[in-house]
Specification:
Strand content: 15-25%
Number of helices: 4
Strand order of the largest sheet: 2-1-3-4-5
Helix content: 25-40%
CATH architecture: 3-Layer(aba) Sandwich
Radius of gyration: 13 Å
Shape: globular
Structural class: alpha/beta
Order of helices and strands: EHEHEHEEH
CATH superfamily: Response regulator
Distance between the termini: 39 Å
CATH class: Alpha Beta
Number of domains: 1
Largest sheet: 5 strands, parallel
């Protein structure tokens, strides 16, 4: 069942979280809300793509896992890139060792966060990505 989501206001930074593990999704949502972000959350790729279509113009960042049901994380990112090249995408995954760098070429991934991560690592990554002149550009 898809996760509940809140409708964002456009006067705050809005993060789309895509995470199938409900405990982690709720924890990340709590951390971000307490840090002043508005959050839209999805537990699968299909729901995430629908939410992106509905709220994409209000989003500041997309934070997605790779191993999600419905639509794999890479497929989700490709679909997002077809609609927007500018929205920064951060991948949060514990399976980076299983992926070759070529899989991510052309997707303009703004950052990678390896699970498990701390709340400070997550907040710093989001902050760093948002500060870049072109937020979808990878770090130097």
């Amino acid at each position: 069942m898809p996760a509940a989501h809140s409708v964002p206001r456009t006067d705050q930074d809005v993060v789309l979280i895509v995470e199938d593990e409900s405990n982690l999704r709720h924890l990340v949502e709590l951390v971000l809300v307490r840090s002043g972000y508005r959050v839209i959350a999805a537990s699968d790729g299909i729901t995430a793509l629908r939410l992106f279509a509905e709220h994409g113009e209000n989003l500041s960042v997309v934070l997605t896992d790779l191993e999600i049901p419905g639509l794999h994380g890479l497929e989700l990112i490709q679909a997002i890139r077809m609609r927007s090249q500018s929205i920064p995408v951060i991948i949060a995954s514990g399976t980076f060792a299983e992926w070759s760098p070529e899989k991510f070429e052309g997707l303009a991934i703004a950052a990678f966060v390896e699970k498990p991560f701390t709340t400070s690592q997550l907040l710093k990554t989001i902050s760093d990505v948002k500060r870049r002149p072109s937020a979808s550009e990878p770090p130097p």
